[in-house]
Design goal:
This protein has 279 residues and is of the alpha/beta class. Helices cover 43% and strands 12% of the residues. It is built from ten helices and seven strands. It has helices at 3-24, 29-46, 71-81, 86-89, 120-133, 153-163, 184-187, 193-199, 212-220, 258-277; strands spanning 62-65, 140-145, 169-175, 178-179, 182-183, 203-208, 230-235. Strands 1-2-3-7-6 form a five-stranded parallel beta sheet, sandwiched between helices. It has a two-stranded antiparallel ribbon with strand order 4-5. Helix 9 links the parallel strand 6 and strand 7 (230-235). Helix 1 (3-24) runs antiparallel to helix 10. The radius of gyration is 18 Å and the shape is globular. It starts with a helix and ends with a helix.
């Protein structure tokens, strides 16, 4: 899939996300939108062995959504990949639905229950160690939030990943600078991300997570044989792709009204038309 095709798919996923969250009247839409480009790239360009007909294929790459409150972005990605049927995704927010506000293993394609912030990296490390011990070639990818970096368990995990030379592990921080309480640098400053993770022995790089070209370039350059775990700082915009949400803290967990939904969908549909006309 070309980069432009990935951009188009990300926009279609973005439209679906807005509609699903509006219908459910719940969801962490700001963080969903900031990580959606990366999630689209992972599932449709980076990760190997993903098969909706064999969701537990032994050689599949693993994905852990540590910032589990942004599960709606994962749901629309799984739908686009064929793991979830549209009629299932449409039950989000309804009584009896298998779709919760955080990832659960009841949902096809989800590897692990997650969302208690700070735990996902430790789980991903276990998966990566398992691959090494069993001489398997699959890779493990963990997506964390930047507000989540205040959890101490992350740094215990970071030390373990270095000790065991987990070059088959890639952690991504969705660096949108906003958490539920406001700007991360006011709540718990983390601007030393690169220095602190480098000091833990990780291979650290940064990318523009709002730019599909840069996302693909960055993932394609990963050296999975350098004996070091990988961290990507994905610089993004909270609420990316919906102009009235971008960079606004209240959309961490915001509910759209009907007019806002219509405005957001119209904006996204225009980008979809532009992309399609240029292909």
């Amino acid at each position: 899939m070309t980069t432009k095709n990935l951009q188009l798919l990300a926009e279609k996923n973005r439209k679906r996300l807005v509609e699903v969250v509006y219908k459910a009247k719940a969801g962490h839409i700001g963080g969903d939108l900031s990580c959606l480009n990366v999630m689209t790239a992972l599932y449709f360009h980076v990760m190997k062995g993903l098969d909706p007909n064999q969701p537990k294929a032994p050689e599949r790459d693993r994905f852990v959504l540590s910032k589990g409150h942004c599960v709606e972005a994962l749901y629309v990605t799984l739908e686009a990949k064929g793991f979830l049927q549209p009629e299932i995704l449409d039950t989000l927010g309804q009584f009896g639905s298998i779709l919760s506000g955080h990832p659960t293993i009841e949902v096809p394609g989800i590897e692990v229950n997650s969302g208690a912030l700070g735990h996902g990296l430790s789980i991903g490390i276990g998966m990566a160690i398992s691959a090494k011990m069993n001489k398997k070639d699959y890779h493990t990818y963990v997506l964390m939030g930047d507000g989540e970096q205040g959890e101490g368990s992350i740094y215990e995990a970071a030390m373990a990943a270095h000790k065991y030379q987990l070059d088959n592990l890639v952690a991504v921080i969705d660096r949108n600078h906003l958490q539920i309480s406001g700007d991360t640098e006011n709540v718990m400053p983390i601007d030393s991300i690169r220095e602190r993770w480098s000091a833990f022995g990780w291979d650290v790089t940064s990318m523009n997570g709002d730019d599909m070209d840069d996302i693909i370039r960055t993932f394609d350059k990963i050296d999975y044989h350098n004996h070091a775990p990988h961290l990507i700082i994905s610089n993004t915009t909270k609420g990316k792709g919906v102009s009235f949400m971008e960079g606004i803290a209240k959309w961490h967990h915001g509910v759209l009204n009907e007019q806002q939904c219509l405005d957001a969908v119209k904006e996204i549909e225009e980008r979809i038309r532009q992309l399609e006309s240029s292909m």
